[in-house]
Amino acid sequence: MANIFSIGQSALTVAQAGVNTAAHNIANAATPGYNRQTVVQVAGQAGAQAAATVGMGAQVAEVKRNYSSFLGTQLLSTQSQQSQLEVQYGQIQQIDNMMADSSVGVAPALQDFFNTLQNVSTAPADATLRQSVLFSAESVTTRFKDMSNQLDEIGQGVNSQIESSVQDLNSAAQHLVGLNQAIVNAKGMPGSQSNDLLDQRDQVLRDLSKVVKISVNEQDDQVNVFIGNGQPLVTGSTAHQFKTQPSKTDSGRLEVVQDFGNQAGAPLSSQQPVGGALGGLLAFRDQTLAPAQNALGLVAIGLASGINAQQVKGYDQTGVAGKPLFDLPPVGVAASSSNQGVASLGAELGDISKLTASDFTFRLAGDQYQLLRSPDQQIVASSANADEVLAASAEQGFTLELSGELKAGDSFLIRPTAHAARGIGVALQNGRDLALASAETAAAGDSDNLRQMIGQQNAKTLNGGTSSIQSAYGQLVGRIGSQTRELQLTSQSASQINAQTETALQNASGVNLDEEATDLMRYQQAYQAAGKVMQMAQQLFSTVLDMGR
Amino acid sequence: MRISTQNFYSGSGARLSDLQAKVGQTMQQIASGSKLLTPSQDPAAAVRALDVTQSMAVREQFGKNRESLRSNMGLADITLTSMQDNLAGINEQVILANNSTRTSEDLASIAIVLKGQQEQMLGLANSTDSSGNYLFAGQKSTTQPFQRDDSGVSYLGDDQPQLVQVETGREMAIREGGRSLFPKDSNDKDLFALLGQTIAQLEDGSLSPAQRADSLKTLSQSIESTQVALSSRQTAIGVHLGELDRLDDLSGARLLQSTQELNALQDLDYNKTLSDLSRQQLSLQAAQKSFQMVSSLSLFNYLG
Q1: DSSP A86-123
Q2: Where are the domains of chain A?
Q3: Which residue of chain A comes nearest to B5, CA vs CA?
Q4: What is the total count of domains within chain B?
Q5: Is the pLDDT of residue A501 over 90?
Q6: Which stretches are transmembrane (chain B) (predicted)?
Q7: What angle do the packed helices A69-100 and A276-284 form, to 10 degrees?
Q8: pLDDT for A466-475, tens place per residue?
Q9: Is residue A256 within 8 Å of A246, Cβ to Cβ?
Q10: ipTM for the complex?
Q11: Smallest Cβ distance to B139: which of A107, A443, A517?
């Protein structure tokens, strides 16, 4: 007789667990990363006392977390990919928008400059026309500087986003360590529930995969997380911190390194599979921003070198040999702050038709001097003889001069074009100083040299003699346009793939409220039925008691 | 198939924002009148638009250069015509003087008229253009080309034409030297020198009628050769002005072509874009409506 009470009781418990679980699911329908839980119930063990075995009711075997680890892992990867491309696309759009207004770019200012030269050709002795050349030269340099400053500002934005990504990385690592510990503890205690902790940990991993591409393996209920080329972020209950530091050769550029306390590891590079927002930022900086700044510099160098070279061939209004019209900043050379040797390196522009938008590294690797091209790290020249490598720079449009000895591991960063757009200026003050004439004793209206200067507008002086100043600028605009377009398409498709994976995962393990409503009704009925069983047991028991009266 | 309720909402939300973004971009295009809002929308067209804009600007600048040339050439032409008139006046005086019955008073008054005409000729030869540069000084455009000295009038300009680009690969002189306007005779004397000599002779009346006739003959030969020189310069100017007109026509046709190309690259097709907009609006409205309908379907509505 007592059996029926305990069977009824077990049915009530199971139904209650069902209603509670459905309620928990409903409560968490909108919780990010929540996986639907279901009650797994089993029949109670049969009693042994009766000849015919009667069941002992039901019991809850477990509350199961509906989770597909296959889809979960896939989602980590699609999320990194999507996040990287989305960040890259978002960044490049800034440059795309900057280039959008053709009336304020470099092109119309360049055009104006050559137009004022043309105007002077109608009256080369006219002081007002001569002065107007200097004004338009001033305005073309201002356009270069403005654009360059805008690119620099985008670079500063990249730096601060890298910093916040690294903070996200570090706090996720701490969070994961805490969850690893909590999950181990929960599994150690009988009857305790680790489902919600697992959900939380999966969600932290998922959020982390937006910041950086991660590889995860699970060991003894704890997850280990690695990034980049296998740099550890979390191993069991240890979080490995990362930090940002200025590049050793370019203080305006933040790098991400593993923080080993007194010393730092090698920086994460866009050549590694960094992925996520951080990978997107590194890739944008190396593949778009720096090349754009350099390409703009190349156009500025093309203008300044072409006009200056012509200017020094001519004579000004007072019969003095011409001086450069434009100032160009020196070629950027930076010694690595960790250099051990005492060497110093000087660089100057050479044949500008050989210049590209690349940066270079000169270094001593072992006993080999090397000239490397950035960002693809292609070795341009390598030799045990430093002079041979230095001479190879001429083929890249600049010349190097080394003094002092390098020690193995020492390096220099050479940026031939990077600073030109930012630093271009007008050197002449007076229209008189324009060297429009071809000879010292020329007539006031001699414009032979002026007409050579005008010819610089369409002279193919850049990119191996295939591009004029204007077309080199057009190529920059075209490259940004097509890179942006490509990123728009790839980020759209990555976003669709990610959404599909997320939908698949959600459909497998997310909460469907109609389903929960059904469960609620089902367990409500089960609860009512169990109640009836108790009521009937009560009546049966009364019957027995009444028999005794 | 199971559908996660959360995912239904977030998915529908994402689709609605996509549709809204499309409507927004179309509206931006309509507001700006340009289909190329950023280079990424059509990179090849953006680069082409830069090229076309540049070549149009260069062409327009050539047009301005041609205007400057035309104005200077017109001025030179008018000046040369005045010089021709002046020359005809000098010739009249020469014919008047070349008569054996002239008294010394007659000759003295002819000398006065000739003096005035010589001054006028010198002034015309030293004409300047609107920028204050001398018309007939070649590249020495700021030096007064014809200056009086002991031997008469010397040419201080040069013979270098001052060239201006009027079209790709075509330059034309905006100013030329004036030396050739006053050819010299076999005794290395030009119009000014011979005029000066004749005026002096007429003033002092030292020559016999026969000697005077010889001297006036030499002068009229110089007048004739000067007239030929002025005419040939005017003919050259006429040819150049004609070429400038043809270049203008050509350039106008090419500018029109470039403008059409630029319009095709940049300008919005309003009919197409407006119909795109109404289609996008329709699909956004449909998506909103269906979201509203589907999201109101819930079993919980029936649990009481």
Answers
A1: HHHHHHHHHHHHHHH-TTTSHHHHHHHHHHHHHHHHH-
A2: 2-66+510-547, 71-299+471-508
A3: A512
A4: 1
A5: yes
A6: none
A7: 30
A8: 999 999 999 9
A9: no
A10: 0.80
A11: A443
pLDDT at position A365: 92
Domain carrying residue B189: 80-260
Structure tokens at A541: 């028991």
Query: Chain A partners of B43 at a C-beta cutoff of 8 Å?
Result: 477-479, 481-482, 484-485
Contact A334, A250 (CB under 8 A): yes
Per-chain mean pLDDT for chain A:
91
Q: Which of A59, A35, A150, A40 is nearest to A104 (CA)?
A: A150
pTM of the full structure: 0.85
Residue B108 lies in a domain: yes
Scored b (16 or more CB within 10 A) or e, A61-74 reads: eebebebeeebbeb
Query: What pLDDT is recorded for position A48?
Result: 55
Please list the ranges in chain B whose pLDDT falls under 70: 304
Looking at residue A329, its pLDDT comes to 95
With contacts defined as CB-CB under 8 Å, which chain B residues touch A445? 133, 137-142, 160, 162, 175
**Mutation choice for B interface testing from A71, A116, A131, A506 by most B CBs within 10 A:** A506
- Across the interface, of A93, A470, A513, the residue whose CB is closest to B298 is A513
CA distance, residue A264 to nearest chain B CA (Å): 40
Nearest to A507 among B2, B162, B298 (CB): B2
CA B221 – CA B18 distance, rounded (Å): 90
- Alpha helices for A189-255 (secondary structure H): 195-211
Closest-approach residue (CA) in chain A for B2: A507
Task: Tell me the C-alpha distance between B64 and B134, whole Å.
Answer: 20
**pLDDT of the residue at A211:** 96
